[in-house]
Amino acid sequence: MAMPSVAEKNVEQEQENATEDSSFEETQSELRQNDFVDQFPEFRTCPSEALAPIRYQPLLGADGEPIRIYSDEASRENDMAYLTGNVRVSQNQQQLTADRLIANNKTKSYRAEGDLLFTNQNFVVGAESLDYYSLEGSTSIEDTRFHLYSNNGNGRAENIRVDNKQVLTLSNTDFSTCPEDQKSWVFESDEIVIDRDSGWGKAYNSVVKIADIPVFYLPYITFPVDDRRKTGLLPPSFSNSNRNGRDISAPYYVNLAPNYDLTLTPRYMTSRGSMLGTEFRYLTPQNYGEIFFEYLPNDKAAATSNGETLPDKRWQYDLDHTTRFTDNWSSGIAARKVSDDGYFQDFGGSIEDSNQDILSQNLYVQYLSQDWLMRTEYQDWQLLNSPVERYTIAPRVQLTRFFEPSDNGFEAKVNSEITRFDKDNAVTAERYHVEPSVAWSHETLYSFFRPELSFAYTQYEQTDISGNDQTIDRSLPTLSIDTGLFFERTLNFDDGDMTQTLEPRLFYLYTPYEEQQNIAFYDTSLPTFNFTQLFSRNRFSGIDRIGDANQVSGAITSRFLDEQGREKASVSIGRTVYLKDRKVTMLNLPVETDKQSGLLAEVNWRWTDSIEVKSAIEWDDQNNETTHGLVNLHYEPEENHILNLGHRYRKTVNRTQEEAELAFAWPMAQDWRLLGRYNQDLTENRTNDSFLGLEYESCCWAVRVVARRYINIQLDSQGALVPDQRDEHSSGVYVQFVLKGIGSLQGSTTKFLEDSIYGYEDLLGK
Questions:
Q1: 3-state secondary structure 370-419
Q2: Does 20 have pLDDT greater than 50?
Q3: What are the tens digits of pLDDT across the range 266-292?
Q4: Distance CA 635, CA 639 (A)
């Protein structure tokens, strides 16, 4: 007997398709025999992989295809059709299975009852009954259980409505991402609306329960269904410290447009007061950047911070902007500034933050092509906890001409600049500099040879604080010859072949001496001696000093590479031999008469994936002492099993600095991980930074608690205390709590953990 059409008369009867659907019936029978129907057994525990049981997944079909209905038995009466036994209805990648179905061809609707499952690509629902209205494209399901594939969300509801846009509305429902047998937390709500198109859900009049205990009431909350952005309240942050007291912030995200957004972060500290932070991000075809500003209008603790009176109004701004006018023309600004010297000590959160000593403000316009670089910039600095100021560059104009290398290996360029240096109550100057250079490069598979000759002409127009002008000219040629060899051989090991290289390198540098003591220091310093300095053409950074040189630097490196070309280990050793005393010094220091530099050595080792060693040393063999040394060991035998050991040593004329460090992140048992760090200043016998934390993570929730204590003082460039400061430590307890699938209540732990423990990755909530 033919069955009436439910949609456009395109219904097919099961009896006419017995062969086509035999596999489906067999699967249904098997599911019933294993009692799979009513209890969602696959969702009782945290899934280890994507699940695709046949009955819970809809048949694939094209959009707009007709409804197809199958059953064991079917009958009709006027506009009504009655189907019983293994009923299956499918259309547009949606599928319904039930014991009975009553279809009304006049209203193009149907009702299904008994052992009912409704599925699509996003969720599966079990229910007592379902009503579908084809003309409206909506569905109403009574007394339901549901499971969302995207985030393991599941629960029960008195009623679920699905509209024609696939928006789910759940009434009198509970919701959790925990499995049925591990309900660690649950939302009980009057109504939950889940919109897959927007990627967000909304819950009304919700009670959050943890371990069946009501924790708090939420009249309204939004939560993500996927990773897309949406305007709404972000997870708040909680912490407690001796410096700021109880500290809570509640960021609010505003998704203004696909290419720009705004985050407002109200923050309250019981010891200081209320602060507001704002962050605006934008991206257009020509412009992109971020603008950050935070402001504390009345700091209650300012009068007692850092042993000195600070302003009541505390603020910080950070601006990073780039504009691309064309492929060659661009401009940008990068500027950061704070209200006072103690800002980062009060609000920074780590010894690294509290020891930020210089902030820059830079504005530039630039043209860059294959042949030309033209750049105009203005730059100023804010020096924190320093009695001196740095020169403002107001402005600098650079022009560089690059000449394309010739076929025989010659290349040339001309660097030039005009710079104005300005500072209150100090010598000011205009500096004119031009430096043409020519080089030749000859390379083979086993060697390279690169001589380079340059000539630097610099003129200073200096004005002292009395208004007296002085013109200083300086002309200096520089010759360098850089050459090296490359050898390799194959080493045979049981687990594969290795390639060992041997790379000797020599670098000769000659610059004649010229008196430069009358030139002030504007943007020049003496960098730390390292392997890079061995092959530098000027031992000073900046051009206010061009060092006289007649010296030879030599180094030799050996690397071990596996069959994929990955470096497993390397050893380097080098030094500089001075053929002449160095008369050009900083701050009228005596002539340098050493005949050779200290001996530099570096060893890097990663023979296995479990152990990584990085070490470096500068050995003064004239005085038989170490000038600088470090060694870092990273041990990770399995993923997220981390142990780091480190030791650093540096000796200068004024100070010896030595530190030791231990950091770790190690699972203790299933779902538990212990993490911590201990950094000790061995010279001052004080703890710089220490924390101990514990993480617990199940499949649907996680928590991290970290207790931390770190020194919160200003140190000078040598690591010594800035005068007139207390040797003060800050301490606090930080908590991060994650309800997986809906967001997290986060403390300020993630960034400093990833910075403090090399190799650590924050996995909570992922």
A1: CCEEEEEEEEEEEECCCCCCCCEEEEEEEEEEEECCCCCCEEEEEEEEEE
A2: no
A3: 999 999 999 999 999 999 999 999 999
A4: 10
Alpha carbons within 13 A on the beta-carbon side of 444: 8
CA distance 199 to 238: 27
**Using CA of residue 224, residue 227, residue 230, residue 234, what is the dihedral sign?**
positive
Write the DSSP assignment of 627-647 as a string of letters: EEEEEEEEE-SSTT-EEEEEE
Tokens for 392, please give them. Answer: 């403002």
Residue 41 has pLDDT above 70, yes or no: no
CB-based contact 499:564 (threshold 8 Å)? no
> What string of H, E and C letters represents the secondary structure of 462-505?
EECCCCCEEEEEEEEEEEEEEEEECEEEEEEECCEEEEEEEEEE
Using an 8 Å Cβ cutoff, are 85 and 73 in contact? yes
Per-residue pLDDT tens for 158-168?
A: 998 888 887 88
> Residues 17, 86: contact at Cβ < 8 Å?
no
- Could you tell me the sign of the dihedral formed by the alpha carbons of 240, 243, 247, 251, in that order? negative
Determine if the peptide bond prior to 395 is cis (ω within 30°). yes
CB 499 within 8 A of CB 474: no
Pick the closest to residue 275 from 253, 302, 254 (CA basis): 302
Residue 113 identity (one-letter amino acid): E
Q: Considering the entire predicted model, what is its pTM?
A: 0.76
Compute the distance between CA of residue 415 and CA of residue 433 in angstroms, rounded to an integer: 8
Maximum mean pLDDT: which of 11-20, 86-95, 431-440? 431-440
Question: What does the alpha-carbon distance between residue 126 and residue 96 come to, in Å, rounded to a whole number?
Answer: 10
Residue type for 615, please? S
Q: What is the dihedral of CA 528, 534, 539, 542, to 10 degrees?
A: -80
Whole-number Å distance between alpha carbons of 532 and 633: 23
Question: How many angstroms separate the CA atoms of 750 and 350, rounded?
Answer: 13
Q: Name the residue among 144, 148, 216, 161 with its Cα closest to residue 187.
A: 216
Check if the beta carbon of residue 93 is closer than 8 Å to that of residue 61.
Answer: yes
Separation CA 32–CA 86 (nearest Å): 11
- Per-residue DSSP letter, 23: H
Task: Answer yes or no: are the C-beta atoms of 90 and 59 closer than 8 Å.
Answer: yes
Give the three-state DSSP class for 62.
coil
Strand stretches in 21-176, DSSP E: 68-70, 73-77, 80-91, 94-104, 109-119, 123-133, 138-148, 154-162, 167-176
Residue whose token pair is 């993490």: 675
Is the alpha carbon torsion for 105, 111, 112, 117 positive or negative? positive
